[in-house]
Specification:
This protein is mainly beta. 0% of the residues lie in helices and 25% in strands. The strands form 2 sheets. A 3-stranded antiparallel beta sheet has the order 1-3-4, with no helix packed on it. The chain has a two-stranded antiparallel sheet with strand order 2-5. The chain is globular and about 40 Å long.
């Protein structure tokens, strides 16, 4: 099921700055914006700052397991306030610009 949402996040530290592992930040957040209804959009702030970012030279960097672009089969609440989406199950389009 494609949900027509825009999924993303904010990371204040440079990607690939640590090489491989978790990066601590208290400023990150992830979001899901609804295409037709912004009232249903979600912004979720990091609560476990030591696990906010997973930094890797080998795959997509991600926002812990809460928004993981390398494993797009699910989202899982780990380091952020609330899960941003549980219905996208592998139906994701990456727009890199």
């Amino acid at each position: 099921m494609i949900t027509d949402e825009i999924l993303g996040g904010y990371n204040p530290v440079a990607w690939c700055s640590q090489g491989y592992g978790h990066v601590s930040t208290s400023e990150s957040f992830i979001f899901a914006l609804g295409k037709d209804n912004l009232e249903n959009s979600i912004v979720s702030h990091v609560v476990e700052k030591d696990y906010a970012i997973w930094d890797s030279n080998e795959k997509f960097d991600n926002f812990s397991r809460d928004l993981d672009f390398a494993h797009v089969t699910s989202t899982e609440k780990c380091s952020y306030q609330i899960p941003i989406n549980t219905t996208w199950f592998g139906k994701i389009r990456l727009l890199l610009g």
